[in-house]
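Open question from group meeting: does this chain pack into something compact, or does most of it stay loose? Before anyone orders reagents, we agreed to write out a predicted structure and look at it together. Recording both the input and the output here so the notebook holds the full record.
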Amino acid sequence: MNILRTLFILLFASSAFTSFSFDIHEASILVSKDIKPLVRQSAVEILLEEVQKRSGLNWTEVSSWKEATGLTIALTLSRTKKLDGQVPPKRTGSNLPETQPEGFRLLKEGNTLWIIGADSRAIIFGIGEFLRTVSIGNGKVTIGDNIDFATAPEYSLRGHQIGYRNTANSYDAWTVEQYDQYIRDLALFGTNAIENIPPLRDDASPHFTISREEMNVEMSKICDKYDLEYWVWTPGTVDLKDPKLRSEQLDIHEANYKQVPRLDNIFFPGGDPGHNHPREVMPFLKDLYARLIKYHPDAGMWISLQGFSVEQVDYFYQYLETNKPTWLRGVVSGPSSPPISETRYRLPKQYKHRHYADITHNVRCDYPAQNFDQAFAVTVGREGINPQPVYYAQVHDKYAPFTDGFLTYSDGCHDDVNKIVWSQHGWDSDKSVNAILQEYAKFFFGPTLEKPAANGILALERNWVGPIIDNGGIEPTLAYWRDLEANNPNLSKNWRWQMLVLRAYYDAYVRRRAINETGLEKKANEIMNRVDELGSKTAMKEALAIVNKADTEPIEQDMKQVIVDYSEALYQSIGWQPDVEKYKASNSQRGCMLQFVDHPLNNRWWLADQFEAIDTLATEQEKAERLKIIANWENPGPGSYYDNVSNIATGPRVTTTVYDAVDFVWNNGGFSRWRLSSQLSQVDPILEYEDLDPNARYIIRVTGYGDALVRVDGRRLEPIKYDKEHEGFKEFIVPRSVVGDGTMTLTFDRPEESHMNWRNYSRISDVWLIKR
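Structure tokens returned:
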């Protein structure tokens, strides 16, 4: 860890709130003319506005020392020789943080607080450090009296994609002012790059406040204002072998470049979207670069290898070796890219490497929520509110050493906490998550909530760890946030606060529903097991009536109303769209937590469909047999075992994780009527069995879709039954010799399906080991 960074953390932590601290009621801001004019203006605005709205104090800008009253906050560069005749403090030595790119020093000297930056952008970061760590309350700002610390970023690129497009779950409803404030907030936590998605095709949103063309220009202006890099994500989805289409694409891209006052980098995703071979892509980007530098001579071109085949990846590296393109600045590693470590190893040193990390999605993504219960997966969904600071800090720290930094993928402000954690860990990967969250809470909610809100965010993350019914922390987390909510009514219109409180209610509501609906299904199973006594028609009617009580006798409606009210509040405050019909979300995967708040957590939809099919069977015996299979689906009898291979609650013998899984299946717009276990699957799971009876005969039963190429202890088995349709059964006899030692490892070979779309790959969902 950088020793100066360590000193900065320890010194500030020990001084800011001790007997050496003092209150500021009046302050003047003096700014060096060596700072870029736009940044000079922005720096003053930030200090004046952010202090005023938190404390009510009206600080002033002055042009000379003699005009200053109260504390003087002096903003200057490390190379500045004099500030209005006074020599700024300077230290001797090499590699001082305030002389490294974006580094700064904060020093209190008498009645002056110096913020000394290595460059203009560093002044913004120094102000951010000041605002995050002082205590700002009503009518005063409290700072330490012996401040002297300096720091510089660990990684040179720390950015986030916040594209103004229809698929976003909130950004598309923002005004220029909202974008300005959000980009400012990110900058104050160390973000130095913003990526937009300019209009290359028709993607209108009913929420747009201005056109995409206009917002593209405005976002560029905002980044210039704070001296942040402005990136654009611009794919090529047409056939680049077609000369006419290729020429049109060059013209469309150039038109966007020409419009914006600032443009630092272009990110061209190689294959997501797009299906062009790099032999067409690289010459296209070379031509594109020639047009780019006409308007932005210092801008760079980046490419990702997303979706490239092995041959295409090899071609790309051969192109670099042969052509050594100076117009290419770097390579981006994103979803469906080759491994990050491999990319850094193969990439020549003159090219930079960026991580395009998905911190916005919970399922069906690169970094899915760990140990995520299916109840959350089908309600909170792929893009629900997801503060996971500890997890995402670990993801950052695992991959960052292979890169020059990151610019994350985000499609809404629901991942706001994750963005802040990444920005701060990009600055200093040794900074504790707790320290980051305390600064987050202090800055956005006030000094009295520094620790309480930080602890509450950590509790929300723990809500998602493990089986929901067994997670006893969800109810105390709700009680904790209810108390915070009741005691801080002044934050009721703060969107960050609204999101966190909503999540506490939502998690508890889903858990209570899961407990209730699971219990209803158990009762329905008991009814179906009495089919010989009741008859199939009565058994099905009574069983369905019981599971449907989830709809006919819904629970916790007062709590649900709170969720509805907070959803409306978030729509009003930031344009969050948690429902397609009511709030015009672009589609049901895009943050639609309200739309799925009552999604079934038992199998009532599947049972209704199954009962219709059973009713058509020829004999009562067939109907009874099928009902008993359904009733005992998860309880195959003494000495037998059942595993839902991707469900953390009912797959105890499964050793593979969500990273190995196809993940949570998405069909019918999220309103799948499949059995819940069939909506979870893996391609090649591994199961370990112990305590088997060496004298027994066992049968393996598998369901899912497509092929199931079974091996036990490495030995391939041939099926005695093989239904490849969805939820069809496949059965295999286990040789006695395999279970002689009482243990068995069950594996699945991956079928050769490279010619198929991944959505049609074979998958395994349920596995039984049945003792005969």
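Observations to bring back to the group:
The longest helix spans residues 495-528.
The chain has a mean pLDDT of 94.
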